[in-house]
Design goal:
By secondary structure, the protein is of the alpha+beta class. Helices cover 37% and strands 21% of the residues. The chain has 18 helices and 18 strands.
């Protein structure tokens, strides 16, 4: 047997007002006025304290308060704000139907087993809406029309029992029905004032005496589903907008609004168990193009406090082109959090890891000013290492093959050059080793205490410290038996041929020396 449908009608009576007061800095009376009727539609607590009421004329509201702030109602903005709320609520309930401009239907019967009952789900909903910081009303019923009607008549009505729902519906006044004013007046002239009295009339008399809209609405109350609705499908990105009550001319005044946006992003990511590497803050101006600020984090972040620190550093380096009238925070790409592994024997480390430090440096100095060492496809030691900009969020050291593929002409030429180099080295290696070995042997025999250390016995030993550029030096007197010839690639303009040896200078230091084609000697580095 299928479960009984259960709907929750969630209304946001003052979405635009909640957005304007998101930073909590507004204490003067504020009203949202309809552009056509010039009546108060939304008002804050300060306006209520001076006697202003909903549906009051604008002239009377202005007479009650000299400090009254008046904002025009924006229907398009209300639709955007409703979509933002639906995006945040989607993780609580998957089946939602938008009811513009200020309400959402949530179907609860598929979700009750997940949350353990209706009461626990409603508590989760309250906690989330309170955390968002918006004003709301909701009611639960077995049909969409009944849930909407109870939300206006008896807010916070929560029950899954059909009997209790019917009792609550029978007490609803006819003025709350979504019917035309003429139909409402006609029912009142007949002495009908509640939904219960309307249900008591015979169905045949209703069909003959009243318009079709009343019959359709009564059928919806009794369980006939609406034919013109579709379930909400959330977008695959985060996009939130805030409009302050005043123009902002200084960067530090943007931080309270940015904090509100980042808290919503934090909640959005937490519900999805996701992280992001990059956020985009759009600064909207009245007469200037929108200015985009892109803030990146080397490791995926979710917490609003961390993003606020990075955004603050970015704003300190930004010059506002004009007073800011609105802010939009957007995120297009999300990632799963990667588990961090720590070495138990590494000891006490700093508070920031490498990725966090990189994020702070990029936000303060700019991504184009942060560099890291990388490997290049070059046989010459001074060209094998270079500095590259840390552009990617999780940038690692470039691969040797990737660098080589961008440096070498092609694979065939690289292979041919390698074969030629090996052939030349094979032909000349024996004579070079013999000449240098004889010289090293004579020096070692005359100075037995200056034998080569075991750590430098390899032909491919490399020094800890390189000299840039190599320093000219006289021919070394104490040369080891090892010799290595390094040739620069033939396609480079300055061809070089070097014969490297490990030698000892007069100060007793082990040096990495080479002799070029002009038979001049240079010190290229020192061993530890």
């Amino acid at each position: 047997m299928a479960a009984q449908p259960l709907w929750l009608y969630l209304q946001f009576p003052q979405l635009q007002l909640d957005m304007l007061e998101a930073d909590g800095s507004k204490t003067v009376p504020l009203v949202i006025v309809s552009s056509q009727q010039l009546q108060v539609q939304q008002l804050n607590q300060a306006a209520k304290d001076v006697g202003i009421k909903p549906k009051m004329a604008l002239a009377l509201a202005c007479a009650l308060s000299k400090q009254l702030d008046v904002i025009a109602e924006q229907t398009e903005l209300a639709g955007q704000l409703l979509a933002q709320q639906a995006q945040l609520l989607y993780q609580l309930c998957a089946d939602m139907v938008l009811a513009p401009p200020d309400a959402i239907w949530l179907r609860l019967d598929p979700m009750l087993n997940l949350y353990g009952g209706l009461a626990k789900f409603c508590q989760k909903l309250r906690d989330l809406l309170t955390q968002i910081g918006c004003t709301f009303n909701f009611a639960v019923a077995d049909t969409m029309a009944a849930a909407r009607l109870l939300c206006f008549h008896q807010p916070m009505f929560i029950s899954a029992e059909t009997k209790l729902i019917r009792q609550a519906l029978h007490t609803c006044p006819l003025a709350l029905l979504p019917l035309t004013p003429n139909t409402i007046r006609e029912l009142q002239r007949l002495g009908l004032h509640s939904v219960g009295e309307l249900f008591a009339l015979p169905a045949r008399s209703l069909n003959t005496r009243f318009p079709v809209e009343l019959i359709d609405f009564l059928q919806e109350l009794q369980g006939k589903p609406k034919a013109n609705f579709c379930y909400y499908s959330p977008p695959e990105f985060f996009d939130q907008k805030l409009e302050p009550l005043y123009l902002i001319e200084q960067q530090q005044h943007l931080l309270p609004l940015c904090k509100v946006l980042l808290q919503q992003l934090d909640m959005y990511l937490q519900l999805r168990d996701q992280y992001c590497h990059q956020i985009t803050l759009a600064l909207c101006y009245r007469d200037q193009p929108t200015q985009l600020l892109v803030v990146s984090s080397a490791q995926g972040e979710r917490q609003a406090t961390i993003w606020l620190q990075l955004l603050q550093l970015r704003l300190e380096q930004t010059q506002l082109q004009a007073p800011v009238c609105a802010l939009t925070l957007s995120v297009r790409h999300f990632v799963a959090k990667q588990a961090e592994t720590k070495d138990l024997f590494q000891g006490v480390q700093g508070k920031l890891n490498r990725q966090q430090l990189l994020s702070i440096l990029q936000a303060r100095l700019g991504e184009s000013r942060i560099f890291q060492p990388a490997l290049a496809a070059s046989h010459l030691p001074e060209s094998a290492n270079q500095l590259v900009a840390c552009e990617a969020a999780d940038n690692a050291l470039p691969n040797r093959d990737d660098v080589a593929s961008s440096t070498l002409p092609n694979h065939a030429q690289q292979k041919s050059e390698k074969q030629n180099t090996e052939k030349q080295n094979t032909e000349k290696q024996s004579s070079l080793k013999k000449s240098y070995a004889d010289q090293g042997a004579r020096k070692s025999k005359s100075n037995p205490s200056k034998l080569l250390p075991q750590s430098l016995s390899s032909d491919l030993a490399r020094p800890l410290l390189l000299c840039s550029p190599p320093k000219p030096c006289p021919p070394p007197l104490d040369i080891s038996a090892g010799v290595e010839r390094i040739l620069s690639p033939w396609w480079q303009p300055n061809f070089e041929q070097r014969d490297y040896v490990i030698a000892r200078n007069a100060q007793g230091q082990w040096c990495w020396c080479y002799r070029d084609q002009q038979r001049q000697w240079f010190i290229h580095g020192y061993f530890s």
